[in-house]
Amino acid sequence: MKKNHTEEDVYILAIESSCDETAAAVVKNGREILSNVISSQIALHTLYGGVVPEIASRKHIEKINQVVEAALLEAGMYLEDMDAIGVTYGPGLVGALLVGVAEAKAIAYAAGKPLVGVHHIEGHVSANFIEHPDLEPPFLCLIVSGGHTHLVIVKDYGEFEILGRTRDDAAGEAFDKVARAVGLGYPGGPKIDLAAKEGNPHAIKFPRAKVEGNIYDFSFSGLKSAVLNHINHANMMGEEIGVADLAASFQSAVVDVLVSHTVDAAKEYGFKKIAIAGGVASNSALRKGMGLACEKAGIAFYYPSPIYCTDNAAMIGTAAYYEYINGARAGWDLNAVPNLKLGER
Amino acid sequence: MRILGIESSSLVASVAVVDDEVLTAEYTVNFKRTHSQTLLPMLDEIVKMVELDLETIDAIAISGGPGSFTGLRIGSATGKGLGLALKKPLVSVPTVDAMAYNLYGSAYWVCPIMDARRNQVYTGIYDNRNGFSVIKEQCAMDILELVEELNEAGQKVIFLGDGVPVYKKQIEEKITVPYLFAPAHLNRQRAAAVAALGGLYYEEGKTISAAEHSPDYLRKPQAEREREANFS
């Protein structure tokens, strides 16, 4: 069962439990995914219209060993073959993070392996390395998910400069809230994406928010309010709401801002490479819009497959690899840090 | 038989190694630092101190709950990770049972109380006069109902647990049977008790795989209770 394990090869067992996916993966040399196991809780949280932290934490503890064992089995390797254990320790839901952190620490300790703590967002950025062997820092990366909206310069592996972030709602959060308001349900991203395919993105004029101060910051709460006002107004007038048109118009307002901020920043800072990451990076309109804008500007555009956009442990293994070869090691007192800042150690 | 005990159901973090009738090492901390920061470094400390080879343990006994949801999960995940890596079985020891085991052979009935907030305690009742025997299995209940139940039983009783400082006044006002409060060295969770009782369960074959273990919370998540209430 054991693979040919040469001296140079580095194998990482990675664990991710920051939100509602229990995940483990085995990653070879940072970029080759030998297994990527994800136990999703989405169906369960759909009952509540969003992630319930206590329920997420309980599910993580029930599934974690099976997920880790499946990751090793699928990779055809034993724990002894691993060079290090990588684990997400923030940001995220503290109770959820703690399950992965305690599990990873105990495994690393008992197996006598080094432990590497990974920043969840660094994981998302690193998802781009998996399928693009040519992609190396520096480049510009837009990270958009249910919890995060960041525009960052990836200066080097594990080294970031944040150019912009959301002042209020995360982009994916806006998708969730709008989807709930029009009765599409949770999770909002894929449901809006699907509904929008049948709609006209120019049907309703929603605002493209500009924020005071930093031109690369984002704001989505104004847009969200505009959508909710539109719905309330239509309801008051007894007009039927065209869900497809509304979804398409809302989505286009979000995508326009994401694309223009990112491409403007690439031009200002002279980047010829743009990558996107996070759950919203699997949105078809964002991929298309960013692709067209990059093509026009002569910029190479990178994006991960949908499976590497949403939370997974393969991306954590990739990030852990670069941390590991740079000498990063976590102690047995590693704690979950729910509001961990990008670039913080 | 060598049992590793892990206890993290309350503010107390505790790890212990019991070899048959001997407590080889125990490290207990009742301090504000999180279990995530303390538990594994404490285990590392005793492993070094007593030159313990983790491969030689027979089972890992976990204080299985009830208690702090997060605390229980840190203990569980630690035990599950150790069990996975060492390929050792787990024993899930009811937390209140392990607390009562602190007072093995007590002439008084034993009543551990853990503060569960809103006048509730996690508790159980034990007649340990001939060693250790469960009268009332661990549960969550109102503190005054518990006192009433003890009054009706008419037995002398000794209380312990972090519920004592919280509910001492209410107990003293309502109780009609002779009672005691256990002193500092006996009145909190201890991994030694988890490991010792876990050893008995291990000998009875009451083990589970590391994959199977999850805490016995005795309470559903609040969101689930509210959802059920809305549907009924």
From TrEMBL, chain A:
EC numbers, comma separated: 2.3.1.234
Catalytic activity annotation: L-threonylcarbamoyladenylate + adenosine(37) in tRNA = N(6)-L-threonylcarbamoyladenosine(37) in tRNA + AMP + H(+)
Annotated protein name in UniProt: tRNA N6-adenosine threonylcarbamoyltransferase
GO annotation terms (biological process): tRNA threonylcarbamoyladenosine modification
Residues annotated to bind substrate: 143-147, 176, 189, 193, 283
NCBIfam families reported for this sequence: gcp_kae1 (TIGR00329), T6A_TsaD_YgjD (TIGR03723)
Any one of the GO CC terms: cytoplasm
Natural source organism: Lacrimispora celerecrescens
Automatic annotation (TrEMBL), chain B:
Cited InterPro entries: ATPase_NBD, Gcp-like_dom, T6A_TsaB
Region listing for Disordered, in residue ranges: 213-232
CDD domains noted in UniProt: ASKHA_NBD_TsaB
Coiled-coil region(s): none
Pfam families xrefs: TsaD (PF00814)
GO terms, biological process: tRNA threonylcarbamoyladenosine modification
Domain Gcp-like, first and last residues per copy: 32-225
UniProt GO cellular component terms: cytosol
Gene3D superfamilies with a match to the protein in the record: 3.30.420.40
PANTHER family: TRNA N6-ADENOSINE THREONYLCARBAMOYLTRANSFERASE, TRNA THREONYLCARBAMOYLADENOSINE BIOSYNTHESIS PROTEIN TSAB
Entry protein name: O-sialoglycoprotein endopeptidase
